[in-house]
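Hello K.,

You asked for the raw outputs rather than the summary table, so here they are, unedited. I folded two proteins back to back in the same session to keep the settings identical. This is the first:
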Amino acid sequence: MKAYTYVEPGLAKFVDKPKPVILKPTDAIVRMLKTTICGTDLHIIKGDVPAVQSGTILGHEGIAVVEEVGSSVTNFKPGDKVIVSCVCSCGKCYYCKKGIYAHCEDEGGWIFGHLIDGTQAEYLRVPHADNTLYSPPAGLSDEALVMISDILPTGYEIGVLKGRVEPGCNVAIIGSGPVGLGSLLTAQFYSLAKIIMVDIDDHRLDTALKFGATHKVNNSDTAKAIKEIFDLTDGRGVDVAIEAVGIPASFDFCQKIIAVDGRIANAGVHGVPVQFDLDRLWIRNITVTTGLVSTNTTPQLLQALEAQKIHPEELVTHYFKLSQIEEAYDVFRDASKNNAIKVLIENDLSPQS
């Protein structure tokens, strides 16, 4: 089969790989229908995630059709269309019983495209299929279903819920990429005073306004942007700052705009250390949270999709075949130039579904 594979820092290739097989009774083999590219994939290719070994197939999002199931799989059968969660869960270990699927102790957590082969391929082995796959509700677009694999639960769990977003508060989301926009969509479950999107890309900022942001701030000039945010919040700063970029400058920006008793929710993937201004923040009652998505909100988010409360399908801007994945990466890597938010990649083996 064909698959997009990490080789070494700075290099990934579209190559031939063996088709996966059932290894455990709880496994399923699925034929990928559609997948996408995440900013985390770019971090991996840069070398920011050293746990990824050479030869690993990238990708952790997508929808698929079940081809084969292990003897212990009871929720799915060949021919079923499924959502592939970015996090695998055994459902039985210490962390899974606490709902922290991100740290499943039995071949679980974020392992696709990280510790085992991922979704940017024609076929995929899915560990713990009964708990990792989801049956999609009828009537939802493929675009919306792919967004439920990762960016919506990540934005919601690690941005909105970790940041304790609540009615009436002022929220700034730093980074108008897919995870930042996922945070924006799900923050609107609450009645907020202001949702301020911060980015250096004016197109993405304008897109955020269409998706429900109340204000946009271009932080190409950091000092000017900080002043704008304090002007918008009566000089106090924001109650919640969601970091959705993963670079030191964006985390530092959050520290500079947070109000007394505010929460900084870090959702970005950081490859290098950041400066943490504890000497300035300790007296201001600031909470800083981090996290890896557990996807324990996926059922709730599927209900929100069914009820048409959010429309994540509108995040998709570009379409490619799997055989064009290198071109898709070029477009996504230079998102500002190409006005790209999310790219949808269709398996060449799969008919339109």
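The second followed immediately with the same parameters:
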Amino acid sequence: MSKVILSKHRRAKQWAVFARLWHIYDAKWQNPFDSAELIAKYLSGKHKPIFHTLSDCGDHVVVINTAEIAMPDTEWRYRIYRHHTMYAGGETFTPAWELQNKDPTKVFWKAVYKACGSSLLRHTRMERLHLFPDNKIPDDIKVNICSQIRQLRPVPKRLGEYTKEELDAYPKLFEWPENYVKV
């Protein structure tokens, strides 16, 4: 049997295919359930050409601004999370807004956990998820980040973020009279 010798270039290409990359995702004003589906693909490695259901080839994902997620319609009030301590009477139900106030990363974590499915590798994949409530990332994690996952929805600018020139250039439906009194 002949031994296959890879050139340095081919060896580096092969290492790059199997390497675990670090991606960053900004969760500001994003729906956590839609974002979780996208992030679960990166954690499981479904975005790679070498993906197989039994292989563990997923990447690390760093999610920032989890404290500023946005849920559709009345999800904050009516989405309930169940927890059971496995003791008698140990079942509790917590609304999403209360869980978000207690831990600003927990709602997003639970959404990604559910999106990862019921695979045997779910816990291993969740270990590669790094959540931060704001945009402060520790330096030892920041040096590893090499890619960015695009947000699903564009974040609109707040009214206070527009300059005076942009506000003046915005088309007006009508002009207020000079003697109009604003209250």
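The radius of gyration is 23 Å.

Happy to rerun anything if the numbers look odd on your end.

Regards,
P.
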